[in-house]
Write a structure and sequence with these properties.
The protein is an alpha+beta fold and 210 residues long. The chain has two domains: 125 residues, Methyltransferase, Cobalt-precorrin-4 Transmethylase, Domain 2; 77 residues, Orthogonal Bundle (Arc Repressor Mutant, subunit A), CATH 1.10.10.10. The strands form three sheets. Strands 1-2-4-3 form a four-stranded mixed β-sheet, sandwiched between helices. Strands 5-6-7 form a three-stranded antiparallel β-sheet. The chain is elongated and about 65 Å long. The N and C termini lie far apart (47 Å).
């Protein structure tokens, strides 16, 4: 077995690595493509079972399924590169996806509605409304003011003592409406002062680089 592929498989599935036994639905693969493109880039190993065993694939058929996923079911389209590996006589496709500058990318959910997806640990999950707002705000980063208001100064002081804060907590801390608190947290995330984390049902903001 190729040492490179063996090393990848030994890592197990994680934020930037996913195994696929085969491709039976281009829409499902589209969710993986957009999740990697929206989060931190990543690699799909097609022809590898969840337990790391090599199953192998029909390389031409699988490639066209990935291509269809990218072109037909990713909005906007997600670019990818494919490397074909022969592992013990079986074909494994390594599909590489870069972190995109065109976020958010969307793919159809189980009901056919296009949603933005991100990677959380080793899973593809629907991006929160706040995450989508952060992506959109990134496009207008130069217009965001760096002058901290009283509520923002309270926020930074709070985060030096606590690990994280939610929109609701900041709303109360800064005597702001939910919408005002959310927009402030989004802006501070875009300029790098805060880090946004979505894990399951939890949505928190942590101190970034002041």
């Amino acid at each position: 077995m190729s040492k490179y592929i063996a090393n990848l498989i030994s890592q197990g599935e994680h934020l930037t690595l996913d195994f696929k036994h085969s491709i039976t639905d281009s829409r499902k693969i589209a969710r993986s493509l957009v999740a990697f493109a929206n989060t931190a880039g990543g690699t799909l190993l097609i022809g590898v079972k969840d337990n790391g065993n090599i199953a192998g694939v029909n390389s031409d058929e699988e490639f066209y399924m990935v291509e269809a996923a990218s072109q037909l079911y990713c909005k906007p389209e997600v670019p990818f590169e494919v490397v074909k590996w022969n592992v013990d006589g079986k074909t494994v496709l390594e599909v590489k996806i870069e972190l995109s500058k065109k976020r958010p990318h969307k793919a159809p959910d189980k009901n056919g509605k296009f949603k933005a997806y991100i990677r959380v640990a080793d899973e593809n999950v629907i991006a929160s409304a706040i995450q989508v707002k952060i992506w959109k705000a990134e496009r207008h980063r130069k217009s965001i003011s760096l002058n901290l208001s009283d509520s923002e100064q309270k926020l930074m002081a709070y985060l030096r003592q606590k690990e994280s804060i939610t929109v609701e907590q900041f709303s109360r801390l800064g005597f702001l409406s939910y919408a005002e608190a959310e927009q402030t947290l989004v802006n501070l995330t875009v300029i790098g002062m805060l880090i946004y984390r979505q894990t399951g049902d939890s949505e928190i903001f942590c101190l970034g680089n002041e």
